[in-house]
Write a structure and sequence with these properties.
The structure holds two protein chains of two kinds. By secondary structure, chain A is an alpha/beta fold. Helix content of chain A is 49%, strand content 10%. Chain A contains 13 helices and seven strands. The chains are: A alpha/beta, B mainly alpha. The interface between A and B is medium-sized, with 17 and 16 residues.
């Protein structure tokens, strides 16, 4: 499906030199004219999106006006921390490591989550690992969620999550993104910097973010780029291979969890194509040919994208006011 | 239509009207209205509906049964409940 130097499908390819310059120029302009701040805060998970955003921030302002944050917690993989440090050193930016595990513990994140898991698996305890997986949408069913747990002997068990348990687990784990955002704004306030949000287009479109968590930011430099384009841009920018070749994960649950099994249902390369085809009013027959799937599956895929847009529309909304209030200055 | 069906229909209609449309105006909901297409419910709302079926009517919805054809309107729900109760 891919044919060029940056390993990207031809329908998604870009003039990356031009695109990087355009984004860097807009970042300077937005910072100066809209935000009136003197630099950027970037939380670095070691993933592709935050890595590219950090590199773009450096392109825009230089290394002295970008401050990086690494915020691991109990369930973070050691790889993500390693990649975050690798990136900070590669870009030569100042950064700090703030472990948020004790804060999450104090706020009840792990306790609420584990109590909810025990509604389904009563024998679950802190020595076990867990993750949530999505089911249904790409098969034409209603999206719902299963919990997967693994005991210390390495045995895995999976059950469908009752609604209340699912909502509680998600609410508890959302603390992670919200505490991180609190720290990002602490550093932004003390330095008079702006906070970068790192969603790519697929995540932004499909609402794959936590409201007032990773969804909160002053600027979102790559929200117009499909995930495949972000990977390709990372290669164009010469970021370390370990980052360019990483598989997207949530890094939120203790069992390794791809973004596709948690939310998107398909690998990002296929989701990008499906989203691009939907946005360009291609038919399900054309998508079926492109992805070598049945027309019915292509239809399910389009419907799943539209369903997620509807379900997550609320995440995009600013507080809705009863009447408009005009602020002149 | 027998009393059980009438009562189930009323129960379902009341659940949707009270919890998603915030009204007791029966004219706001037709039994054929698609919850998803009209925007009355999103997929999370359907999961809440599935929970309601289990709690109030002891109807357990299996993963394979979570399709719009079973759950996306009052009429679809009544037919689904009828099949499950048979």
């Amino acid at each position: 499906m891919t044919t060029n130097a940056y390993d990207i499908d031809p329908v998604l390819t870009l003039d990356f030199e031009h695109e990087v310059e355009k984004i860097a120029q807009r970042m300077r302009q937005i910072l100066s004219q809209d935000l009136h701040r003197r630099g950027f805060i970037i939380a670095m998970s070691g993933g592709i999106d935050s890595s590219v955003c950090a590199a773009l921030a450096v392109k825009a302002l230089g290394v002295k006006k970008v401050f990086g944050l690494l915020m691991p917690e109990k369930d973070s993989s050691s790889t993500s921390g390693d990649l975050g440090k690798l990136l900070a050193k590669h870009l030569d930016i100042e950064y700090t490591v703030d472990n948020i595990a004790s804060t999450l513990d104090s706020i009840g994140c792990y306790r609420w989550r584990d109590d909810a898991i025990r509604q389904v698996f009563p024998e679950y305890n802190e020595q076990w690992k867990n993750k949530i997986v999505i089911a249904g949408g790409v098969d034409g069913r209603i999206n719902h969620y299963n919990i997967v747990v693994e005991n210390p002997q390495g045995e895995r068990f999976e059950k469908m999550l009752p609604l209340k348990a699912y909502l509680t687990i998600v609410a508890a784990t959302n603390h992670k993104q919200r505490i991180r955002k609190t720290l990002e704004y602490f550093h932004a306030d003390r330095l008079n910097y702006a906070v970068i949000g790192t969603p790519n287009r697929l995540e932004y479109d499909q609402g794959f973010f936590v409201k007032n968590g990773d969804g909160s930011a002053d600027i979102k430099p790559i929200s117009h780029l499909y995930k495949s384009q972000v990977y390709a841009m990372a290669r164009y920018l010469g970021l370390p291979d370990a980052i360019c070749n990483s598989t997207p994960t949530t890094d939120t649950y203790s069992l390794e969890q791809g973004q596709d099994e948690f939310y998107f249902s398909l690998p990002y390369q296929k989701m990008d194509i499906a989203l691009w085809y939907l946005n360009h009013k291609k038919t399900s027959s054309e998508l079926a040919n492109k992805l070598a799937i049945s027309e019915q599956q292509a239809n399910f895929l389009f419907n799943d994208i539209l369903s997620k847009r509807r379900t997550t529309d609320y995440l995009h909304k600013k507080p809705v006011m009863i009447e408009d209030v005009v602020l002149d200055f | 239509m027998n009393d059980v069906v009438v009562n189930t229909q009323e129960l379902l209609r009341r659940f949707i009207l009270e919890n998603y449309l915030f009204t007791d105006d029966q004219g706001q909901l037709n039994n054929t209205d698609s919850f998803l297409d009209t925007g009355i419910l999103d997929s999370m709302g359907i999961l809440e509906l599935i929970y309601f079926l289990e709690e109030e009517l002891s109807i357990k919805t299996e993963s394979a049964e979570m399709v719009p054809g079973n759950l996306d309107s009052i009429d679809n729900l009544l037919a689904f409940i009828d099949r499950k109760s048979a």
